[in-house]
Write a structure and sequence with these properties.
It is a single chain. This protein is an alpha+beta fold and 741 residues long. Among the domains are: 8-295, Rossmann fold; 526-638, Ribosomal Protein S5, domain 2, CATH 3.30.230; 643-728, Alpha-Beta Plaits (2-Layer Sandwich). It is 28% helix and 31% strand. The chain contains 18 helices and 38 strands. The strands form ten sheets. Strands 2-3-1-4-5-11-6 form a seven-stranded mixed beta sheet, sandwiched between helices. A hairpin with a 4-residue loop joins β8 (183-188) and β9 (193-196). Bound molecules: guanosine-5'-diphosphate and magnesium ion (MG). Magnesium ion binds at residues 22-23, 61, 80.
């Protein structure tokens, strides 16, 4: 396979709500480009980016997958992303390495919750957004009942909705073409040509045709609207437009490319992935208008400097604190505090790679997916892992077509590739040539929202469990595994019931490890409501060397979600500099074991502001113990209280059950945010404490005779009402007091 310079590469994240047809659309692009001989289907796992057995079985994409289409001299790298609520954060990770997002919208369902979410993420990364109104073949069927010109009406209603949400920059660059059979093709509003496709599917290749007669007037008007918007703010173009009455095609193409790159225009296209209608034309569009990989602004990374705990809050520490499979934290990186290093996406810059995904293949082993940020990477090259130290040799350099690796000899700046069997490298790592160290910040994955206890079925399963779960954690950054310090139970935490059930299925299928899943536990937290100060003094003199540490600390409440922060106001050596980290550690560790009920204390700042030391007897341990004493004492005055996770719940059910659903939510301390009709169903949105939702699946089934469905995800923590807190405290364990006190 030839190698592509960055200017011939397009990196595109394909995002949108579940079932809008992303995976199928990608399959149609691959077929149109001749990468596959038939169109892959999601139902039987033949779509290139739907290879995972659990995903196929459940009909849901859960993790990012990549494919590429070689199309007329360019290589379009396509990242397929999950659109299901609880896995949608993967789309954010995909956008970090893409230069454009294709936002897919189901023509009948319109913009949905995850569509909105992925739009905002694309905005966050300043990614140009190309909207594809997909499954257009379904439109006509739904609309003919009302009137014959249904398809066009639906299309214009969709466009109105897009503009209302995302502004008038959403402009059609195509018109859909309908005939008696249905959606047949598109009119390109730049070149003013029509592309018509075979009646029932076909290969995704259209035939160029004249614009159908009845569409000509509409096409002309839409063309002018497009030209006007593109020319807006460009004086020379506007002048040309007013003088000549139009803009020459080449000028229009250049200006539209620029407008898309600068997020001034969000083009809207039409397609049917399943039937391949619009497929080759979408590839054309990406080739001409999506920013090239080389056009991306330089990437900012941090120079490698001193390690710190910054960015690691008490919860991360809690999650990894007693990892049963070893103390190695899988998803944690040493943070750096230092200068910023810029890398332009150019072959001439030092080689820099960023690993955005890891997969464990039963045959190939660990597969690392990366983007070449800068430089040229050759097969068999040895590189440094800047994030972890150590070297890695990159052999069998490949580009991925779904699960299939296609070997290449080199990759240029801006392109994406994969290698197998790296020893240490994990998702989020930066690699590159020696002497040019820097680190790119990986996007954070959300905290897990549900914790389940799992029990290995046999002794053999118990032995295999840790290693197997650690492999899954390398792939899945939201998964956590640890052992409950009090009950010694194995626990897994993830995005919700479906997520954890999939993990259990994967353990069995891929690692032959069987476990039983037990009811989830609510991850309560503790926090403080008042400022408090206290002194901790640790002194021990028992002949020989003594121990001496003394510190005064202040605790202050922080807003929800802040985690743990530490500050030092020690000036003039009341505590020698080298012991301050021991104070921080002493507090952080004590906070983890809780104060009123054994749950980690979060959302507070601890400041050490005074203390004293002894020339001979002071050491780190003494200051750690002193800090623990100070923390415990300060907590007594800091009005500690319990926090509980609150879930954002979305329930969909036929409308006749709405009353029953609302009544039930009331008994669960739920707060209903809204109720919206969706076809014959209603969607109820509510916020409900997790503790009240643990068995909700079963309740919903019986309330709606199995016709309801729900998603939920963590929204954040809130203070537990006193009456409820008393019940929890009555059964919770107080932390064991340390022996040294
Ligand atoms: N009629 C029709 N069905 C489609 C189209 N694209 C996808 N589907 C179906 O919609 C369902 C979801 O498609 P999939 O590609 O998995 O959606 P994703 O969740 O966005 O990846 C599958 O049953 C597809 O066969 C389309 O263009 N037309
Ligand atoms: Mg999919």
């Amino acid at each position: 396979m030839r190698s592509y310079p960055g200017s011939d590469v397009r990196n595109v994240a394909v995002a949108g709500h579940a079932h809008c047809g992303k995976t199928t659309l990608i399959a149609s692009l691959l077929q149109a480009a001749g990468m596959t001989t038939t169109q892959g289907r999601v139902q039987d796992g033949s779509a290139a980016t739907a290879y995972d057995e659990d995903e196929v079985a459940r009909g849901t994409t859960m993790q990012n997958a990549v494919a590429f289409a070689e199309w007329q001299g360019v290589k379009v790298n396509l990242i397929d992303t999950p659109g299901f609520h609880i896995y949608s954060h993967e789309a954010r990770a995909a956008m970090q390495v893409a230069e454009a997002a294709v936002i897919v919208v189901h023509a009948l369902a319109g913009v949905e919750a995850v569509t909105e979410r992925t739009w905002r993420w694309a905005e966050e990364f300043n990614l140009p957004r190309i909207v594809v109104l997909n499954q257009m073949d379904t439109v006509r069927a739904g609309a003919t009942a009302r009137e014959t010109s249904g398809g066009e009406d639906v299309a214009s209603a969709l466009l109105d909705d897009l503009r209302e949400r995302w502004g008038r920059s959403c402009v059609p660059v195509q018109l859909p073409v309908f005939d008696a059979v249905g959606f047949r093709g598109v009119v390109d509003l730049v070149t003013m040509q029509a592309f018509l496709y075979a009646e029932n599917g076909g290969t995704g290749r259209g035939a160029i045709a004249e614009i159908p007669h009845d569409l000509q007037q509409q096409a002309r008007a839409a063309h002018e609207a497009l030209v006007e918007l593109v020319a807006e703010g460009k004086d020379e173009l506007l002048e040309e437009f007013f003088e000549v009455g139009t803009i020459p095609e080449q000028h229009l193409i250049t200006a539209l490319h620029e407008a898309i790159r600068e997020d001034r225009i969000f083009p809207v296209l039409f397609a049917s992935g399943l039937r391949g209608v619009g497929a080759d034309h979408l590839l054309d569009f990406l080739k001409v208008y999506a920013p090239t990989a080389a056009e991306r602004a330089a990437c900012a990374g941090s120079a490698i400097g001193a390690e710190s705990l910054a960015g690691m809050n008490a919860e991360n520490i809690a999650a990894y604190g007693d990892g049963a499979g070893g103390h190695e934290a899988v998803n944690q990186h040493p943070s750096v505090r230092a200068g910023v290093v810029m890398r332009a996406v150019r072959d001439e810059e030092p080689l820099t790679l960023f690993v955005y995904k890891t997969l464990h293949d039963p045959f190939a082993g660990r597969v690392s997916f990366f983007k070449v940020i800068s430089g040229v990477l050759h097969n068999e090259q040895t590189v440094e892992n800047y994030s972890r130290g150590g070297q890695e040799r990159l052999s069998h350099l490949s580009v991925m077509q779904g699960r299939k690796a296609v070997e290449v000899s080199e990759l240029h700046a801006g392109d994406m590739g994969a290698v197998t069997r790296l020893r240490e490298t994990l998702t989020g790592d930066t690699l590159g040539q020696r002497g040019a160290e820097m680190r790119l910040e990986p996007v954070a994955s959300p905290e897990p929202s549900m914790t389940y206890a799992i029990e290995p079925k046999t002794r053999a399963d118990e032995d295999k469990l840790g290693p197997a779960l650690h492999k899954l954690m390398e792939e899945d950054r939201m998964l956590r595994f640890f052992r409950d310090a009090q009950t010694q139970e194995f626990q897994v935490a993830g995005a919700g019931q479906q997520h954890i059930e999939t993990v259990v299925a994967r353990l069995k299928r891929r690692f032959h490890t069987e476990v039983t899943l037990k009811a989830p536990k609510v991850p309560y937290r503790e926090t403080i409501r008042a400022r408090a100060e206290a002194q901790g003094r640790h002194k021990k003199q028992s002949g020989g060397h003594g121990q001496f540490g003394d510190c005064r600390i202040r605790l202050e409440p922080l807003p929800r979600g802040s985690g743990f922060q530490f500050a030092s106001e020690i000036f003039g050596g009341a505590i020698p500099r080298q012991y301050v980290p021991a104070v921080e550690k002493g507090i952080a560790e004590t906070a983890l074991s809780g104060h009123i009920a054994g749950f980690p204390v979060v959302d507070f700042r601890a400041t050490v502001y005074d203390g004293s030391y002894h020339e001979v007897d002071s050491n780190e341990l003494s200051f750690k113990i002193a800090a623990r004493l100070a923390f415990r004492q300060a907590m007594e005055q800091a009005k500690p209280c319990l926090l509980e996770p609150v879930m954002r719940v979305e329930i969909e059910a036929p409308e006749e059950y709405a009353g029953a659903l609302m009544g039930d939510l009331n008994t669960r301390r739920g707060h209903v945010l809204g109720m919206t009709p969706r076809g014959r169903s209603v969607v109820v949105e509510a916020e409900v404490p997790m503790a009240e939702m643990l068995q909700y699946g079963a309740t919903l089934t019986s309330l709606t005779q199995g016709r309801g469905s729900f998603h939920m995800e963590m929204r954040g923590y809130e203070v537990v009402p006193t009456a409820v807190a008393e019940r929890i405290l009555a059964t919770a364990q107080r932390p064991v007091t340390a022996e040294t006190e």
